[in-house]
Amino acid sequence: MPPRHAFWTIIYGNAPTSFRAAERDELLPTLKQLQSKHPDAVLMWFARGRLWTSPEEAREALFRQRATRPDERRPANRRERRGPGEPGRDWRPGGQHRDPRDRFKVPRDVRRKRFAARVRRTALPPKPSHKKKDDE
Question: Structurally, how many domains does the chain consist of?
Answer without folding.
Answer: 1
